Amino acid sequence: MVIVIKSNTDIKRIEEIAKDIEKKGVKTKLTIGENKTIIGLIGDTKRVSKDYIMSNLEVEDILKVESPYKLVSRMMKEEDSIIEIKGVRIGAKDQVIVMAGPCSVESREQIIDIAKEVKKQGANILRGGAFKPRTSPYSFQGLKEEGLKYLKEASNLTNMPMVTELMSVDDLEVVSKYADIIQIGARNMQNFALLKAVGKTNKPVLLKRGMSATIEEFLMAAEYIMSQGNENVILCERGIRTFETYLRNTLDLAVVPAIKELSHLPIIIDPSHATGRWNMVEPLSKAAVAIGADGLMIEVHNDPKNALSDGAQSLKYKNFSNLMKSINKIKEII
Prior knowledge:
Layout lengths: L1 E4 L5 H12 L4 E6 L4 E6 L7 H5 L4 E5 L19 E3 L2 E3 L6 E5 L6 H13 L4 E3 L17 H14 L3 E4 L6 H7 L2 E4 L7 H8 L5 E4 L6 H13 L5 E5 L17 H8 L4 E3 L1 H5 L2 H13 L4 E5 L17 H17 L1
Parallel strand pairs: 7-8, 7-14, 8-9, 9-10, 10-11, 11-12, 12-13, 13-14
Antiparallel strand pairs: 1-3, 1-4, 2-3, 5-6
């Protein structure tokens, strides 16, 4: 349920109304937008009668939120959310953010070299895995805290925020110590204990869509995070599993305008994991920017043939440079 407050109502009076409603046993979320101010009701709204709400002269209207997700809903917040990390604004209309780096941190020298190169080409955020979820238990699993230290050093040297994946609640403390953005991978999109845990932190969260998740399930996962108090959620489409086997996954570009219609949260595209093939990354990145994605997550490696993970989908430096030139031209057009 959403309560629309009349314009020019004093903020103290709005807060008083919210506190009175909370006494009925529901949570409230105050959103002050450019065009209207609303109080969102979260929980068992049957405890609060419409007559009780409308008895406040400052209330203009009551709207019912039909979707199961509330906090992430566009009805709850009309304006796009902008997640700001160290001066980088994800979700701003005038920017397309690029997160770039290797799938896995393999050494100090490797991550520093890659970080310097992607920074030079215009990347905004450094990405890299220290804890790696792999299909095979015998594959490289990451350098763990040692890798986090290297990532942080590379982040500091290039003055770029850093994003890395969290796989377990047990590792939340150590990942939070180093990361600027915590990534929840596709395999953990419905790990509700993990979602609740990152929801209790103040760290921005990059939430990847599960391989078989519907858009509603994707947004409900974001709702889990926001329900714990963390509103800094960035959505990421990285391809879904379909009957098609030519590529690793099927990139659902339609999710971008769909999310923009349904939610205020920013959404970025990961074409590297979506296809599993480096030569597909640039054309899909251009398409993503053209349809309004807020950013891209690109895998870049200094030696893809010898990468310890996902070398086939990683761009060489020259390819990444070409990609950045292409998307900058598209940004100018749109």
